[in-house]
Design goal:
- This protein is mainly alpha-helical and about 170 residues long.
- About 50% of the residues lie in helices and about 10% in strands.
- It contains four helices and six strands, in the order E-E-H-H-E-E-H-E-E-H.
- The strands form three sheets. A two-stranded antiparallel sheet has the order 1-2. A two-stranded antiparallel sheet has the order 3-4. A two-stranded antiparallel ribbon has the order 5-6.
- Strand 5 and strand 6 form a beta hairpin.
- Helix 1 runs antiparallel to helix 2.
- It starts with 9 loop residues before the first strand and ends with a helix.
Length: about 170
Amino acid sequence: LAEGEVSGITETRFGLHLIKVYKRQASQERKLEDSRDEIRNKLAARKSTDIAFDKAAEASVAMVDGASMEEMAQADGLTIKSTPLLDRDQQIVPGVGRAPSFIEAALALGSKTEVSDPIKAGNTWYVLQLADQQASYVPELADVRKEVEAEFRKRGASRLARERADELLASARE
């Protein structure tokens, strides 16, 4: 977009948006002296990520060989966290955030003795082990009626908001 230009309706996971460019800034070269600290910090962050991955991989292998998750966490001064039961349609893991690879790895575990490869979510590496499993089922409508009605209302509101946004955009362009 050029300066002052407004986009069409853009949808993200956060909702519907109109984007306006107020100002553009030209790219520029920087001298090494001006970037030295930034480069040093990025290299240190990369090194710490590599070390964290190596620790997670070592823990994963040791657990496959029979070590317990508790032993591995204690050896590295880490804590063990549990999530609520996860499902395929879930977008966010409580305590972890948006982590599709985490959910995929968790749901791929088939038994309590199975251990995942290291999984990165955000800036953290995780090793997953199944704590509990529940078979898939279709709930009775009476058990989920409130959730179904809320989702129906939410979708209707979203449709109405999109229609109104289209009207406003058309009006703004006129």
